[in-house]
Design a protein that fits this description.
Chain B: Keywords: Membrane, Transmembrane, Transmembrane helix. The structure holds 2 protein chains of 2 kinds. By secondary structure, chain A is mostly helical. Chain A has 18 helices and 4 strands. In chain A, a hairpin with a 2-residue loop joins strand 1 and strand 2. Chain B is mostly helical. Chain B has one domain. The chains are: A mainly alpha, B mainly alpha. Bound molecules: protoporphyrin IX containing FE and copper (II) ion. The site of copper (II) ion has 4 residues of chain A, from helix 7.
Chain lengths: 585, 65
């Protein structure tokens, strides 16, 4: 057995641990908010004001899909780069600097969200401290400037993390001229190229339009423009959530199965395809938006369908590697090899089940991506069903499973409760199927998402099977199982961290691929070339739609003042609606 | 034991999942299974799996995995 990561790279291990800690704190709060939503919107147990539901929902979105996933990503990638290049960063103070920026940024965003629970939020930067704008922060919904400042700092920190990993690679390249980029570093670098390109949209949206507007430096903005810039980033970000899971599936899962990765070149091709295709598809989130010509939506749809390719390649490579591993362990027969896999190992089982849910969730994504059928599910509860199958399980469950393998190597402590851990990942799998099945079915009959009280007077949903009551019960049951599973995970992690006088029983070495980098064409490692093509594709997909949006109503829109999201604003809105209602009837 | 506890756990989880999703698929074909019956079927499946799993192997009564 080789030395543990913590013994070989103690300084880097400390940073990875700090990143995981931030990630897990966000996960805990996010999960708590999740169960509150599940019980509230189904009217099973409502203990908060329905107006506060949107504060909870903003927290759920931001803490889970921004903080939990991205903090884990930077920790995992720091491990991957260090371990695969066998060297630390050029200057570890810079590494702590970007982590610090990310931590401060998320702290600022978090307090501006959580202040929404106060009866009398304090005044900060000339406005009440709150941010009930959901994680998509569509203008003219307005949050306190602090929220946008927090997001901006977090994004800058993530950029610097990417630059740090590139610097480490450049330094390694000088020391190892002519060598292929090690696979895990290749995955990190390509992910970050994708992030650099795609995050430009949201950074421009925040820094040029939304932040100045919330500080009242500019008076107006163009909501369709900021929304389009958000989704320029918004589909790329889903792969930013997913690729850490892919990294684990490609590098760790084959080893856990007892074998080796099937093909190194295929893995490289997959990551390059994500660099090329993950950004010029963002408009598929805007099929229902007026102001974008149908032709551009059609192009976005076509590009999206091409994105199925890397996912199918992954399914093939990962399953082939698992089968190889099972046969190494003595598995035989056409399907019987499945039995030879190490199902007792929570890290393996968690990742395998996550992959299964991902395959299923992928098909629901094809529904979302189809221009015509999207109209059926748009803004319906179907979408959170899809979200929880993908980032909520393919990513979240893989990261939890990966932690069972990685955290012992980062702490030098043995994992506490292996059997409980196995139960935990299986419980997540069952919970997610209960919850998402209900969300999909409810979405199909038009139950809206992002709604505290999705029941209306004098109107019944036409549920073809069972009843709304049954769907609600199933959603709440699934949500409860998920919450229990999340808490079990956090308890096991905590116990492991304090399990000091123990020896971990993991082997951190990762075997080389069956078909190694020598089989990959050299051009795959030409990162400049792929970035150039990706850039050109983005220009092709976005130049005309953005120009069209600006031509229609200007860079800064026409007289679009902020719509502050506070209880008073909602009261005014309710009053206004009642008034209009009275006029109509 | 006919199988290991870990595999039993996963088999139970998979059958619950297939039950929930299968019921949805059947509903698309007009075959509706009410919630209570679904739960009962689930219990029967779990009981069958558990009994099958812990039934001693013939010939080697004490050997467990
Ligand atoms: C503890 C387990 C969880 C429960 C019970 C839960 C529950 C829910 C519910 C009921 C909604 C729908 C709210 C609505 O539309 O009114 C929702 C939305 C959402 N959830 Fe979760 N969730 C959980 C875990 C997760 C995880 C692990 C992730 C991602 C890593 C996640 C990401 C999201 C996102 C992005 C939304 C949409 C937010 C929005 O519309 O702004 N959830 N969740
Ligand atoms: Cu998308």
């Amino acid at each position: 057995m080789t030395a543990l990561f913590v013994d070989e790279y103690p300084a880097e291990a400390r940073l990875v641990k700090a990143a995981f800690l931030s990630s897990f704190i966000a996960f805990g709060i996010g999960a708590l908010f999740g169960i509150i939503q599940a019980l509230h919107r189904t009217d099973i147990f409502r203990f908060i004001d329905s107006i506060k539901y949107y504060t909870v929902l903003t927290g759920h979105g931001v803490f889970l899909v921004i903080a939990f996933t991205i903090f884990f990503l930077v920790g995992l990638y720091q491990w991957a780069v260090t371990d695969s290049l066998e060297r630390g960063p050029v200057d570890i103070r810079f590494t702590w600097f970007w982590y610090g920026l990310m931590a401060i940024g998320s702290f600022l965003a978090a307090i501006s969200i959580l202040a929404g629970f106060l009866e009398q939020p304090p005044m900060v930067l000339g406005a009440e401290l709150r941010a009930n704008v959901l994680f998509t922060f569509y203008a003219p919904l307005e949050a306190n400037p602090l929220y946008y400042i927090g997001l901006a700092l977090f994004l800058v920190g993530t950029w610097l993390a990417g630059i740090d990993w590139f610097r480490t690679w450049w330094a390694w390249r000088d020391e190892n001229p002519g060598e292929r980029i090690p696979l895990r570093t290749f995955m990190v670098l390509t992910t970050m190229m994708m992030f650099f390109l795609g995050s430009v949209g949201v950074i421009v949206s925040i820094l040029v339009f939304i932040l100045p507007w919330s500080l009242e430096i500019t008076e107006s903005l163009n909501p369709l423009l900021t929304r389009t810039l958000f989704w320029f980033f918004g589909h790329m970000i889903v792969y930013f959530w997913l690729l850490p899971a892919y990294l684990l599936w490609y590098s760790v899962l084959p080893k856990l199965s007892g074998g080796r990765l099937f093909s190194d070149p295929l893995a490289r091709v997959v990551f390059i395809l994500f660099v090329l295709l993950s950004t010029p598809v963002g408009i598929h989130h805007q099929y229902m938006d007026p102001g974008i010509a149908e032709g551009f939506k059609f192009i976005a749809m076509t590009n999206t369908m091409f994105l199925l390719l890397p996912s199918f390649l992954t399914a093939f490579t990962v399953v082939a590697s698992m089968e190889h591993g099972a046969r190494q362990r003595g598995g035989e027969g056409r399907f019987n090899w499945l039995q030879a896999l190490p199902w007792r190992n929570p890290a393996f089982t968690g990742m395998a089940l996550a992959g299964l849910v991902f395959a299923f969730g992928g098909f629901t994504g094809i529904v979302n991506a189809g221009m015509n059928i999207n109209y059926l599910v748009h803004n319906a509860l179907w979408i959170p069903g899809h979200i929880h199958a993908q980032v909520g399980t393919a990513t979240a469950l893989t990261l939890m499973a990966g932690s069972y393998w990685l955290v012992p190597q980062l702490t030098g402590n043995r994992l506490v409760g292996r059997q409980v851990a196995l139960f935990q990942v299986v419980l997540w799998f069952v919970g997610i199927v209960f919850m998402t099945n209900s969300m999909f079915r409810a979405g199909l009959v038009g139950v809206p998402r992002r709604t505290a009280e999705p029941q209306y007077q004098g109107f019944e949903y036409d549920v073809p099977v069972g009843s709304m009551g049954e769907l609600n019960a199933q959603l709440a049951l699934g949500g409860t199982l998920l919450f229990i599973s999340a808490m079990l995970f956090l308890v096991l992690m905590l116990l492991t961290v304090f399990n000091n006088d123990s020896e971990p029983i993991v082997d951190g070495t990762l075997p080389p691929a069956l078909s190694g980098p020598e089989d990959s064409p050299q051009v795959l490692d030409n990162l400049r070339l792929w970035f150039g093509i990706a850039f050109a594709l983005v220009v092709l997909a976005y130049a005309l739609p953005l120009a069209g949006i600006v031509a229609q109503s200007g860079l800064f829109g026409q007289d679009i003042p902020p719509f502050p999201v506070s209880s008073e604003a909602v009261m005014y809105l309710e009053f206004g609606l009642d008034y209009v209602g009275a006029l109509v009837t | 034991m006919h199988t290991s506890p870990a595999k039993l756990l996963i088999l139970i989880a998979l059958s619950l999942v297939i039950l929930v999703e299968g019921r949805t698929v059947l509903a698309f074909f007009g075959i509706n299974i009410p919630p209570l019956e679904t739960a009962l079927i689930g219990l029967v499946i779990i009981a069958t799996l558990v009994i099958w799993a812990i039934r001693p192997l013939r010939g080697s009564p004490t050997k467990s995995e």
